[in-house]
Amino acid sequence: MQQIIDIVQRLMEELDVTILGLLCGAFTFILGVIISQYKLEECFHHRRVWSRLAVSLGLLILAVCMNSYVEATLVFLLLVCLTIFLPLPHELLIIYYYKSHLDDLDKGKYRGWLVTTSAKLRFYALRIKACHDEVDRQNVQVEFLDEAKKWDLFDYEYKQYYLPHLDVLFKIGAVKAFESECVRLSRFKDNCYMLCFQTYLAHNAFDYEKMVEYESKNTDTSDESQLVSLLNLLCAYEASGEKEKMKPIVAKLLEYKKKGIIHIEMYRDLMHYYDEILCDKVAGDRLADEIVKMKLARFGDFLNLLDVAFMHYRREGNQAKINTLLDKILSDNDLMQHGENQLITRIKLMYVIFDNGYKWQEYSLKLFFDRERYLKCSYRVGALFVKESLRLIRDVNALTGKGLQQNLLSDMFVDFSRNCERYLSEIDSDLATLDERFLYRYISLLMLKQELLKFMADDDLVLVRKNNDEIFERIRARCEHNGNQRELLHFLVVQIDDILSMNKQILDYVSANKQFTLSQKFIDYKSHWDAYFNYAENLICDVVKILQSRNYDKSLAYYVLYTAYFYNLIGNGKRSVFFLSQFERYGVDLKNWTVPIQDLYAKIAISKTSKI
């Protein structure tokens, strides 16, 4: 044995090899095998790794030159290497502090002390989780996505932090930006999030077959992933009219409900299935009663969930349940919300209460007499109050033939006029600074502006038409810019309906009030009608092009029916009959559609019969 040791020592002396050198070589070899086996070489492509290795090498050289600082340097080297994946000690303390101090988290106090990428990721994860308001949550999510693009993330960080929030781009209407990110991160194409994102893009393109195809590839067995996958499949099967395939999906959703999982879309889809597909009143009542008993921390989620039960009770005509639910919402709004959000909910409930005939006079008059409190707020409250008040006044007059007291009405209009210019200025200011990716907020602001302009136009029909068309054109341009095909088609239909329905209302009014034909406002409008007619006809052609591009797919039945209606309104009976026949070939069960759509179909069908 001694002889073997002597031979090894002699060889090492001859080859000028040391024990430390051998150990370093062995360590390098083993490290190489580990990196190759677990595909860790990708880690060394990251700037975070190379920058820290450079610092470590510099400190190592310093340690060799200054023997007295070796121990301290090794400790610091360890910290530098660990921060590739973990926060620094002081960052861990700050993150722990944030968990119990949410106000400081929201304000970003001590944020400047967070320097490592891993700490910043944890900071944003906490901020997003702490947001109770949907708008605030979306703002923070978009801010996080923009910041994270500047960072050098590892793949596991993309999967854990980035991908779970990427769908916010789709939710705010930024489809083109969302699709661009999906292409950039195509290396994760088999990830459950990315497969789900592909179904969103297929939904935007009205391609329900692709939705089913992508969802069938999802192998993630987690509850959250499976639930989202089931909801997407349910949407695809309903759009394509495959009711039988919906049954097993609903059965699986009920299993998740039994587990205690609360998901608003799940409850909404289940109620839709019971009420409008199966027409099962008992199952719908049971689900609605279950919803009413739930307790949620976030008022927005709470309200969205109660809306599911509310719409069921309304479809069933259960007035007692509706009244109880409205009282509950009013009470909980005062308890759970404060400031402008509380006032906004009160305003939104005004028309709902009127529409359901429950203490609407008492409730609306209370708000009208207290209008100064609402009007002096920002446009978020004030402009909404003007919009909902005008809507209520108009419909009260149309349905009952009796308006409000003239003195009260005059005072309200004076107050509205006094504040509208300020609201318009505030809206324009927000429109100018709004991130162009927030499509749905942009639309909401423009539609609010439209109502104010309509009020200020003082029945100038030409000015109303001009303002409406300008706003719809801005919306459609932004939809096209953001790549949102569904909203583009929707607002094409909305604008056509606005032009033709407004004309029909004017003609109906003229037939009942002949003296109006002599007014300058009507004469001016009539002189512009040919231009309005041609414009509406061109917009209808744009809708038809989209329908043709999808080969009149059954999922577009709603738009096919509206196209038949529009051609009927402009007097093109041949085209109207063609699209109505196309709609009837789908074999759609109109019982599952809203009453206004059923009435619309009846009008066109009668017109078709008379032409035949």
From TrEMBL:
The species this protein was found in: Segatella copri
Protein name from the UniProt record: Uncharacterized protein
Higher taxonomy: Bacteria, Pseudomonadati, Bacteroidota, Bacteroidia, Bacteroidales
Keywords (A to Z) from UniProt: Membrane, Transmembrane, Transmembrane helix
Membrane-spanning ranges: 19-38, 50-70, 76-98
